Amino acid sequence: MAPISETEKDSLGLFSTGAHALASQTPIYSGVLTFPFEAHKFRMDSRSSGEVSFSQKKKQDFATKVFNKKFPFLRNKKYYLFLGRIDEKKGLDIAVQSINLLGDNFKGLFVIVGDYKNSCGLKIEKLIKKLKLENKILLLGHLEYYLKNILITNSKAMILSSHAENFAISLVESLSCARPVLTTYKVNIFNKILKYKAGYVAQENPISFSKILSKFEALNSKEKLQMSINASKCFNNEFNLANKKYFIPSLENNLNE
Fold first, then answer.
1. pLDDT the model gives residue 244
2. Any domain includes 60
């Protein structure tokens, strides 16, 4: 499939690579404000009103079509997702080892999105092969930014088994799409996740993390739906810029921690 040009992206109002690189330097700008398609335009009307404009629907349909062509093996599948920079502090080794500990009890698929052609990423790739988890863990590499919304919406939950995190933008984006999160106490928004029951939190080791993975896997459809509703509430009450009375103190507290 031919890559989509910057001109095509611009015509659809999609995030170009250059714009994303600039935005990613500023935590407030790059992730917290997202409706992922509209982050660079600061458009929050759809988030607050719940309405989706025709242009947004067009972008969503376009992104879905591209996503399904690029990753047909993920079509109609629910998966756990890691989305972000791959380095040691993200603790991907914890997530991989926790899946290994669960063995056949882990029936899901873990999709890792991020540039893994670095020393840490190559270690993770080697670990996946060593543990023979290639059928359970996929390394997708870098993904175009405009596909982020589809990627998150199609997931079961976001995984961030981090050793340290100043502000977990990927988790906030997951919450904004009503997707639960599985993370560690080293992520500084863990208290809000627990407050709203928007996911599970573990210690930063494979045994503890495998327990919350197993706990999430055991949820029935009704329980998962409730956790998704909780995730949306957590975002809207704590991180949605449209709700300024909630968002600004929450954001300031997190950035100062």
1. 52
2. no
